Amino acid sequence: MKVLLTAYLVFVGFVSLHLFQNKTKAESIEAGAEIYQDFCVQCHLTNGKGVSGVFPPLQSSDYLLENVDLSIAGIKYGLKGKIIVNEEEYDGVMNNQGLDEEEIADVMNYILNQWGNSSDDFVTQERVSQIQKSILE
Amino acid sequence: MKHLLSLVFFCSSITIGCAQENSPAIETPTTSNYTYETVVDDINIPWGMAFINEKELLVTEVSGTLYHVQDGIKTAIEGLPDIYVRGQGGLLDVALHPDFKNNSILYMTLAATLDGDAGGNTSLYKAKLVDKHLEEVSLLYKATPNTKKGQHFGSRIAFDNEGHVYFSVGDRGNRDENPQDITRDGGKIYRLNLDGSIPEDNPFVSNPNAKHAVFSYGHRNPQGMTVHPKTGAIWVNEHGPQGGDEINEIVKGKNFGWPVITYGINYSGTTITDKTKAPNMEQPFYYWVPSIAPSGMTFSTSGIYPEWQDNLFVGSLKFEYLERLVIEGGEVTKREKILDKVGRVRNVKEGPDGYLYIGVEGKGILRIIPKE
């Protein structure tokens, strides 16, 4: 019985390790860099500064760094309407980019730790999966 | 000595000028003789539009809705094919068959997966609009291979007066393989007969390996297309990299150079190529440095705006205005901001009533009206 239980626990542990993200933070950031180049750079630019009044900055962005869950929701569901970033108002549309949850986690970890940004938050795929659209309302 | 100094100063100012921006410089008029009214609101990204008549139009929303609009009320049309929504991809342009009044046929470009690998690529569909749904939906062209890349699907649709439909597909984020290779899709302007068959006089039909629908190549991401009202030529604008957005007058079988020649540089600031010219590669009709992120394009032909007769209009996504370009003697002689800061202008069309209509992100469709 004990052997069975141990075997079961090992099995569950193994499966969940593979079901959920098992990347390290560094690996996630690296994967996120690629997503960023592909989906974000046109507007938020290579330096993460965006375009004042049009595309909000990610570098030193109070909105991003102080609202990690809201930022995840913005990427996951798209973002529309007025937001204030570093005391400047933005009233645009960011469409849902069609990224999967792992890709969203990766790109979040990238932008949270790039251009001098740094965050103790490690965004996992599981956390992304739990973010509901309703937090944007 | 004084002369020499001024000469040096003169030369260096020219060099700096060229490197920094292309003339003519954009002007912001101090007074405006026009304003706008909202035709339909609350459409996130109004990508394409097509006018059924003076009261009804169709509008695409990129995440996958085709709207019928009348009296400011929008109704989603049913029966669309599956759409691959990722990055810049989704439901893109819509256009009516030249004989739509009699056959109710419309054309759409959209990102699709269909068969093959995960991901998607641009496709051209034809369908019949019956009441508020689509019937006889048929695929006319599907670019391959699928890719999960988020960039450069194109795509605009236009018709010439000789029974052809044209559409664009961007380089799909693979500039090293797609645009210069006529045996691959992507980075091309395509031409088909209205029924989707390949015209016998398409430029590459005699090459067994070529994509026979290709009409011109070496493009990056064309998101504006219109027919010149006098010459009948297909005019296209395309997003360059940073700097180097272009207007091109499309000529059958020609190579428009991307990425071998360009006036732009990478977003990161590194160079793509040091060449802006090369043999057998077309120069753009006009190029924008800095980039305005052009989308949509039309000529104003109606006379409703007397000062704007025959001018070219292009939406700027980046700087959030409609750009008016005056063309004289085969070149752009003046550029002006219309409706500065109106929002990201995704599309511009001349309606059957002669007014200019623009699609603005986060807003919807606006009509530009002269002030009384």
Which structural traits does this protein have?
heterodimer, A: 137 residues, mainly alpha, Cytochrome Bc1 Complex, Chain D, domain 2, two-stranded antiparallel sheet, 7 helices, 2 strands, 10% strand, B: 372 residues, mainly beta, Neuraminidase, five-stranded mixed beta sheet, four-stranded antiparallel beta sheet, 2 helices, 25 strands, 41% strand, globular
Short description:
The complex is a heterodimer of chains A (137) and B (372). By secondary structure, chain A is mainly α.
Description:
The complex is a heterodimer of chains A (137) and B (372). Chain A has 137 residues and is mainly alpha-helical. Chain A has one domain (23-136): Cytochrome Bc1 Complex, Chain D, domain 2. Chain A is built from seven helices and two strands. In chain A, strands 1-2 form a two-stranded antiparallel sheet. In chain A, strand 1 (79-85) and strand 2 form a beta hairpin. The longest helix of chain A has 18 residues, at 2-19. The mean pLDDT of chain A is 89. Chain B has two helices and 25 strands. Chain B has a five-stranded mixed β-sheet with strand order 1-22-21-20-19, with no helix packed on it. In chain B, strands 2-25-24-23 form a four-stranded antiparallel β-sheet, with no helix packed on it. Chain B has a four-stranded antiparallel β-sheet with strand order 3-4-5-6, with no helix packed on it. Chain B is mainly beta. In chain B, a hairpin with a 2-residue loop joins strand 21 (321-328) and strand 22. The longest helix of chain B has 19 residues, at 2-20. Chain B has a domain at 77-290: 6 Propeller (Neuraminidase), CATH 2.120.10. Classes of the chains: A mainly alpha (137), B mainly beta (372).
